[in-house]
Amino acid sequence: MKTLLIGEYREGKLLDSTYELFGFASQLNADTAMLLVGSEAQLPAYGGALYLADAASCGEYNPDLHKQLILEAVQKESPDYIVFLHSSYGWDLAPRIAASLNIAQISEVIAATDGGFEVGCCNAKMRRTVKASSATAVLTIQAGAFPAVQPGGSPTVQNLAVVIGGALEFVGYEPAEKKDVDLAKAEIIVSAGRGVGKKDNITVIQALATALGGELGASRPVVDAEWVSHSHQVGTTGQTVSPKLYVACGISGAIQHLAGMKKSDFILAINKDKDAPIGEIADVLVVADVMQFVPALTAKVAR
Amino acid sequence: MKLLVCIKQVPDLESRFKPDAAGTWYNEADLAFRMNEYDEYAVEQAVQLREKLGEGTELTVLSIGPDRVVEAIKKSLAMGCDNAAHIQDPAASGKDPWQIASIIAAYAKDKGFDIVFTGMQSQDRGSAQVGVTVAELLGFACTTTIVGFDYDNGTITAKRELEGGIKGIVKLKTPALVTCQLGLNIPRYPTLPNIMKAKKKEITVIPVAELLATEALAATTSFHPPAKKGGGIVLEGDVGELVDKVIAILKDKTAVLR
Ligand SMILES: Cc1cc2nc3c(=O)[nH]c(=O)nc-3n(C[C@H](O)[C@H](O)[C@H](O)COP(=O)(O)OP(=O)(O)OC[C@H]3O[C@@H](n4cnc5c(N)ncnc54)[C@H](O)[C@@H]3O)c2cc1C
Ligand SMILES: Nc1ncnc2c1ncn2[C@@H]1O[C@H](COP(=O)(O)O)[C@@H](O)[C@H]1O
To answer: Measured between alpha carbons, how far is B40 from B20 in angstroms, rounded to an integer?
Structure first.
């Protein structure tokens, strides 16, 4: 079995997540070739075949052009699987490859099973097993689902020529918002999710954070609704935290939130839904209404 | 200008999901359905653009599914879409993203749309494929996961959200498709007068057989709950007792409470 792995490179750097692709390939026991639109100066620690195109001339985000490059490598390699990370780069590019080749795409793979792949669904509450009916398939793998593996060695580089321009013009990056709280250093974080109900209720969550001597965190919808500022957001597009105690109040446990807090030493979750996926990683799941339980807990802690 | 927004109706994600008889998807009995959250951002953005462009612009909302999806269509009409296409398909949930995209592309191909809006992913299936695939099939420029949108004279400037909160700014010429992400806007609630007005808007019903010409490329063979990892304690019951139990556990298991 052969995989063509699509590495990632951004703002002049090879992204570490690229190594998760090798972790996936090794679980499949598959031969690998990699394609990277990156730089000669940032080669992955990997001794196999590497199709390389120069990001300085191709652009870091230029999906039409990257598609052409990938299709060229697919033709040379005839892989069984073309594997991307399920990331802003991967989910943007993968369907273009699948559509061009008229083959199946299976998104957000978390495990390989007998002849198929396991993927999450229904906001991570449930799972599906999916099988491709085409001989070749495009896969995107969930960030963090497979271990990062550094095969070691230096790649045999085949340079890909740049052919066309592409329909998009990439203007530039905008840096992440400045943080006024550094959650990465906090020992205790009490986070508010959409389950707190409304902006006024944030004070109740803040009160528990204060009583415990910790910081206020938040899930993304709470930030988007402007109940708290972005600097409090935990998750893939916010901060990654690893406090001694993480309290998740009314947070369902979507993968993008978990990615930011699953390394916490102890996780206490309060959720009215016993099946909420946060229960999969919580040390304690309290099945209750946050607005009843949290004030009662604060009162006892403060005493 | 002609605008299209594609919406899917999904179950309330706080529901309990049970496998259907075939064991390949959820059982719809007892589930309440509503518009896919990401599609609400898509509808809001499309309506905002419709309002900015004013007269001479037509915004169509499209949904593929059984008759229940008309509820989501009506909401979009009440939010400000001009008319709707209901692609009637009682078996939509059994189709793969490739087929759904092919149906949308077959509907759109000779209608001259300038901009198509979709959600970045559906919350129940979450494949994040349909939008980009439609763009490929139509030969449209496309960008994904947008949290900022501006249109001026044939050019879209979009802000894409990348990992870690960084954003990428891209420009694309119409015809184009964008997939919308949380944080793009705050969807409006339809007002009562607009709900009344929406009742007069036209919903064209098209049987899916008229548009479907592709076979599925992927099949779901099983729908099931995640394997329980165990370890965690689940506490239920009286709030006062729960608080005492939690304090005892925190004292015992963490160094943060003494
Ligand atoms: C590309 C991308 C990046 C993302 N980045 C992030 C990120 O960095 N951080 C992030 O958090 N999310 C991120 N998300 C969003 C993520 O997918 C989820 O939508 C989000 O985490 C859900 O937030 P939530 O748990 O607060 O809300 P919901 O999923 O709506 O969950 C609310 C929970 O509260 C419970 N609840 C409701 N009422 C009560 C009550 N009265 N008492 C107790 N419990 C109650 C419900 O049972 C439910 O479990 C991202 C998504 C995408 C696509
Ligand atoms: N049945 C459907 N009818 C209309 N649009 C859909 C349908 N399914 C998916 N879409 C659109 O495609 C997007 C991505 O869906 P998915 O690829 O299933 O994650 C959704 O946010 C919708 O905008």
So the answer is: 27
Question: Could you give the dihedral angle defined by the CA atoms of residues A54, A98, A92 and A19, in that order, rounded to the nearest 10 degrees?
Answer: -60
For residue A37, being part of any structural domain is answered with yes
Q: What is the CATH number of the domain that holds A109?
A: 3.40.50.620
| CA of residue B99 to ligand 2 center, whole Å | 11
Q: Chain A residue closest to B176 (CA)?
A: A167
ipTM of the complex model: 0.92
Model-wide pTM > 0.90 = yes
- Minimum CA–CA partner of A170 in chain B: B170
CATH number at residue A270: 3.40.50.1220
Interface test with B, best of A174, A194, A255 (most B CBs within 10 A): A174
Segment A38-61, tens digit of pLDDT: 999 999 999 999 999 999 989 999
Between chains, do A286 and B159 touch, taking CB under 8 Å as contact? no
Q: Which residues span the domain enclosing A134? A: 2-159
A143 plus A30 within the same structural domain: yes
Question: How many independent structural domains does chain A possess?
Answer: 2
Residue B92 is assigned to a structural domain of this protein: yes
Amino acid, single-letter form, for residue B96: D
